[in-house]
């Protein structure tokens, strides 16, 4: 059996939460091509825990480092 990991791809206007120990939120602006090799890239705005924008990151590689730093923010009720 193969070890295929299925990861949700970020979509524009989604929120992704940084993994601990930080408490930052990334709002995805665009997902596209990073270079001519077909590698994906993500453009996002990084916010602190109070909602203040910290940085606009353009064309970051959508690789293991993205998934190591961020996880999808899921809304929970209750």
Order of strands across the biggest sheet?
Answer: 4-3-2-1-5
Structural class: mainly beta
Give the number of helices.
Answer: 1
Question: Beta-sheet strand percentage?
Answer: 35-45%
Work out the number of β strands.
5
Largest sheet composition: 5 strands, antiparallel
Helix content: under 10%
| Average predicted local confidence, pLDDT | 87
Order of helices and strands: EEEEHE
The total tally of domains equals 1
Distance between the termini: 38 Å
- Which stretches of 5+ consecutive residues score pLDDT under 50? none
Radius of gyration: 13 Å
Main attributes of the structure:
globular, 1 helix, 8% helix, mainly beta, 78 residues
Topology, pairings included?
Blueprint: E1 15-18, E2 25-33, E3 40-47, E4 53-61, H1 64-69, E5 70-72
Antiparallel strand pairs: 1-2, 1-5, 2-3, 3-4
